[in-house]
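sanity check both lines:
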Amino acid sequence: MCRSKLYEIASEAWGLVNDEMRQKMSFMATAASWGLGHWESMEDYVNSVPNNTMTYSLFQGALKIHHGDFAAAQKVGLRTLDVCMFISLQYFYECLDTMLINIQGYRFQGMQIIGH
């Protein structure tokens, strides 16, 4: 579906739906507004994007740049980078933990086999 159609649907439905549905629509509505350069609508839609997401930070950064607030955009960018690094490290440690558990399991199985 193209941006203009998404934007049109979101604009028509936004005032008719509850907050839960707005949150579900907000990612695509905000992206469509951004892609079409509808900055005021983007500001309305981004308020329904959960603010603890990287997508929210990306949208906020784009709005800050649009308004010429480059220092604030840099802060948003650094915060997003911190979140990305945390997620990457968390994933790395989960993979490492799984790998170590598997290695320990193989050693344990090997010791049982050798002991018999």
Observations:
- The mean pLDDT is 80.
- The two ends are 64 Å apart (CA to CA).
- Residues 29 and 59 are 11 Å apart (CA to CA).
